[in-house]
Design brief:
The chain has helices at residues 8-34, 36-41, 50-76, 99-119, 127-146, 154-210, 260-275, 293-314, and strands spanning 249-250, 279-285, 322-326, 347-354. The chain has 2 domains: 8-210, no CATH class; 249-354, 60s Ribosomal Protein L30, Chain: A, CATH 3.30.1330.60. The model is unreliable at 213-217 (pLDDT under 50). It is elongated. Helix 3 (50-76) packs antiparallel against helix 6 (154-210) and helix 4 packs across helix 6. The protein has a 4-stranded mixed β-sheet. It has 360 residues and is of the alpha+beta class. It contains 8 helices and 4 strands.
Amino acid sequence: MASTDIYTTAKANLRDNVKTLVGIFGGIAGLLLAGTPFTGYGGLDPASATVRWSLATVGLVAAVWLVGKAIVLLLRVLQPDLVYQSALRRQVDLAIYDPADREELEALRREFERRHRNLLRDGMEWVDDLETAANQAYERWAEAVNGPDLTHLIDIRRQIYDSLQDDLGNVNQWAAYTRLRYRIVKGCNEAFVLGFAALVAIGVFSWAVGQKKEDKKEVPVAQIFVVQPPPALPPPSPPVAALPAVNPILFETGKAVLSIEGITELAKVRDYMRGHPDIGVLALAYTDTRGGRTVNRGLAARRAGAVRSALIAEGGIAASRIFVTELPETDLPTLTGRAVNSQSNRSVQLMLLTLPSRGR
């Protein structure tokens, strides 16, 4: 039974606050470019007022750069991220993540250690304990379903299993919200520092262009007007090419070793990503419905790790451009019943995607 995300409203409020800040910084940028002090910049003579002109130029450039960087930073904190259940297990290797992601996951684990008594049941400290309890409840439920004289226990054990699954879902929802909150709080703090610095730069600019100018005797001069034809319109931009489709990486039953065909397909993905630095890849790791759920979960993780390692270690692709999710027996490419041997489901599906632009 899928639990309702109780953090939906809180996440929406956090994102709305960030969007409001983006609008505020955009308004500051508009005032900077359209305000009266900016028009006074054109009246400065670099030859006769070198100091004031230099201060105004530095202040203007700094203000525009700081406001733009703050807007890009605030937009970046809104990007979606996957939170894997494995990040809250006792043993997890955070070295495979980028420094920014590693910092967020370390903060998430510290917060989980402080609040795990409110998120887990008595005696449980990490998600491993909850996963083990859920697997045991599933086995007891299956035993009751298949037993000859245990019909009266089926509903009770099913309810226990569903309750543990709901707990797992609630932990994942809490982790996603906590990680989003950490990123937004940190990003907003940095944006406020940038915004304050931008206001200082605007003040320097306004002071430089607002100084009283020396009275000069105006000498009438002849005015010459030159009429030029309107500039020709630029040629239309070429259409954006669609991203190429990628064949799935297939695996043998119970194995996570790349085949010759899989290595060849990954080489195509690697070559394309090398030539297009703005492209990332999403790897969806599946298993068929044979084997136990715990075994399939680990098998999907190993298959995803094999693809990720091949692209990073052998392909030279940055880890920040590779996104992995493990979906054993979930949302399968080919829907089947239990214990069905399916080659298409023993696979890692690859999807190329365009990465959002980042501030420099």
